[in-house]
Batch of 3 targets.
Target 1
Amino acid sequence: MTRSEVSAVQPDRAVAGWLLACAALVATMVVVGGLTRLTRSGLSIVEWRPITGVLPPLGAEAWAAEFTRYQGSPEFRLVNHAMTLDEYRSIFFVEWAHRLLGRVTGLAILAPLAWFAWARRLTPQVLRAAKLAALLVIVQGVAGWLMVKSGLVDVPRVSHLRLAVHLILAFLLFALLLDTALGALGVARGEGGPPRRAWVALAAVLVTATWGAFVAGLHGGLACSTFPTMNGAWLPWPLASPISDGFTAQLAHRVLALTTLIVAVVGALGASREGGWQRKVSRSLVVAVLLQGSLGAMVVVSHVPLALAATHQVTALVVLGFAVALARRGRTA
């Protein structure tokens, strides 16, 4: 095989289906995580019980004990001090569903991984990627609890920095699973590795998503409700830190989104002379980024409605998916 040819493995649809199902679970977990934040449910469970926390409280006594623990949290004392037990149940189940999905995702990766490895169905590349995915799930769970814990001390708001880490870990896990699934389907890489446009696009998407997490954690979506201006100004001044100020973080997020669009367009132009896979994926990435940007603008001007904000987060995963697909050159047969 020459360097200009592509490398591929024999397609294994069972392995690919498993990996794609796991990627779908991660995507669902991200969406439910976004709903958890938007409904202010993330601090409703004040303990981390990886094993015993699988089941929700059963019976009046268990619910009373869970509610008592929540009543000792800063969020209850400072924000929800008039909340009833029935109202508490509504936010509890959102956070519980998010944590349950995390556990299900971990099992969905680990159990089939053990079986496929025992049956010798995994190539060395897929086996390494699956082991890394299993590790990322564990790290993600720890990062999620550390994020929640940051809002249980004095101020009922999680650290936006820890929120960003939690989100980007999920994005990396999704990207790893999707990329490995494409390989299992026989969608090959080039001999020289992923094209440069794929690395640039992936970096642009992840950095933009990081600032999206900053905006969410700082409630920056409510700091400015106009588009394309920032509260009527094209060049707002003075500005604060783009990492700790919601308004400035939103401006940085907009600039990064525009940068991602430029990267996607330049990449599509560069792929116009290449094979069908690169050309189609590059053009799809441009469309996805345009849609994502439009949704972001709508979220801002409509004061962050839950449905639009959740859709904006879903589309971010679509954009990431196309950026991951750029790392491949297409099928060899």
Target 2
Amino acid sequence: MNDLDRQIEEALDAEDRALHREFGEQGLYAQWFGVYRGKQAWIAIIVTIVSFVAAMIAFYSIYRAVGAGDFDTAAPWAAAATVLLLMVSFMKIWFWMRMESNRVIREVKRLELQIARLNMARAA
């Protein structure tokens, strides 16, 4: 916890501290599984399945390329493996970007909650 986090924690009242602990920063696994929730969960599921299948085919292509006797036989398998591994890499990048966007959305919603609570406190 850095100084800014400590100052924010000290400025909060007991109810805000409880909310901050409940809706605080998530760990890696919570963020990872969070991609599989919400309106776009089906996209994450499809991307995961396609990525897994592409990785398996890429490993098979590498196996065939290594076991090929000559360059003419190995080249297509190596090219297929390269394309498939790039495809898997792009899907993983998309997945991590989705995790990051979920984290930012979560923080924005926390700010919205704090603003709404502040407005309610001022109105009362």
Target 3
Amino acid sequence: MSCPGKAIACAAIILGAALAPGVHAQDFPTKRVTLVVANAPGGGSDLMARLLAQKLQEIWGQPVVVEYKPGAGMVVGTNFVAKSAADGYTIGQVAMPHVINPSVRRDMPFDTVKDLSGVTMNTISHVVITANPALEANTLTELIALAKKLPGKLSYATAGAGSSMHLTGELLKIDTGIDMVHIPYKGAGPAFPDVMAGRVQIMIDPLHSSMSYIKSGKLKPIAIASPRRAAIAPNIPTIAEHLPGFSVLSINGTVVPSATPRAIVNKINAAFVATVQAPEIRVRLAELGLEPVGNSPEQFDAFIRTELEKWAKVVKAARITAD
């Protein structure tokens, strides 16, 4: 900047420009905030968003509106966020497709790392492998042995091709050298009856949606895909106990356009962390089978990068593409 003869005025302008982001962040938010859900209303993502929005509204003293933009495996809604003004007023809710889509979809309209910044991982939920009660295998060790004895004869059901559950199964196959056939369904609903009837031997699905079948004895648990046991089912061992380093977490997180000033990102982070850690919210999350996290933007960004690399390798090895 050149300000000949106007040094004092120039200095004031420069100082004002430098302080503007901080001042803006200090006052944020001063108007309505939109929380974008990349799924249709009525599902788990919707419940989570409305739960967060209500508490955020109390913290900020400003309206927090949930807006739905479903389509293309969550790409439509996340793309809307990536292309939005980088002022903190449009926030995106993301889940596991956020780190899987770049590997399974050829024409991504945004760059997951360059165009979006992580705010925080809100919650995690656990993925569980269950089986028909009549299956010979009762443990992961026995399942692997049975699959090796019967290559290509065992099948596992998931809620859809390219889902985190599907990739969990493929990662297990890669890490153990077993051969199981994937049977994708359009949602978990129609898959459960087939597994319970023995038409498909194995099911991979979120733990919270499988718990009622486990408790009733209609399905037997084999292992949790998370690196640690689940608080709601501590008796179910993890895959990592047999295969050290194995880790699949189903997550719910928050992102904003990458150009959003860091001070605003930190302000949003603080509000979301306070929200998921609030006692009344923790109770509701537990009812939904979710465990609160609330980590830093840097930690969430690091998780995203690591997961992108991991699933890219799995997708390539398994030759997975989106429907």
